[in-house]
Write a structure and sequence with these properties.
By secondary structure, the chain is of the alpha+beta class. It has one domain. The protein is 26% helix and 24% strand. The chain is built from 3 helices and 5 strands. The chain has helices spanning 14-17, 23-33, 89-100; strands spanning 11-12, 37-42, 48-53, 65-71, 84-87. The chain has a 5-stranded antiparallel sheet.
């Protein structure tokens, strides 16, 4: 079954959680400053993709997402060396579903 954008669960990017001891303060800072959010997608074929968005990443207002394979199902397959940046929502979902179709 293809991944939909609604399937992604974004949280404050771990890099910004450490800005404050209070999760509420960190969430407000991240939202107010557009610092960053992250979703991790675990695909049925064993791949794992990190999706991030925010001012500190390879993104713009019109192309707000950056994605990268961060785990592979076996050692013969290599992780991406570079993130896929400046993705629209449609491009992001196409990228995720392309990875989901890879054989292990």
């Amino acid at each position: 079954m293809p991944i939909k954008f609604e399937d992604l669960e974004f949280e404050i990017h771990p890099m910004f959680k450490s800005l404050s001891t209070s999760a509420l303060v960190a969430k407000k800072l991240s939202k107010d400053l557009n610092l960053g959010y992250r979703a991790v997608v675990d695909l049925p074929n064993g791949y794992k993709i990190s999706v991030i968005t925010g001012a500190m990443f390879y993104s713009t207002q019109d192309e707000p997402y950056e994605a990268m394979v961060i785990a592979v199902p076996n050692k013969e397959r290599k992780k991406d060396k570079e993130p896929q940046g400046y993705l629209t929502q449609k491009e992001l979902i196409n990228y995720i579903n392309k990875i989901a179709r890879r054989r292990t």
